[in-house]
Amino acid sequence: MAVVGAGVAGLTAAAGLTHAGAAVTLLEKEPDILPLFRRLPDRWLHPNAYDWPAPGWDHPRAGLPLLDWGEGLVKDVATELRAAWAAAGKGVRLITRGENTQPLQEDGGVVVTWNEAHSWRALDRRRPHRLPPPRP
Question: Which residue of 13, 14, 44, 104 is 20 to 30 Å from 3, comparing CA positions?
């Protein structure tokens, strides 16, 4: 199974699928996980801010079974998530930009490779056409 994007959602999905017994490859177009977290390291992040004014919006933790995190500065949340990923992400094949330009799967089914713009490209050999390229 492939998960595209190694942000918080992608890491959590990959960890959850692996925990459930799936073989997972996590694809990230940037050189490292949590790419958006590098932009504003001193921004305050709260896991339930978008739930306001629902009850529990002010709970300081996300409450996730895997990769749970608490409110704080982005750089501190990133540190917490990286530590959790080190444990929960064991067994996930992580491929970031530049690490692998070879096809990920070529068994008569779907082939996923990097394209020239360092985005993922999929070719479904079961169909006679290329899938549309991802948006930049």
Answer: 44
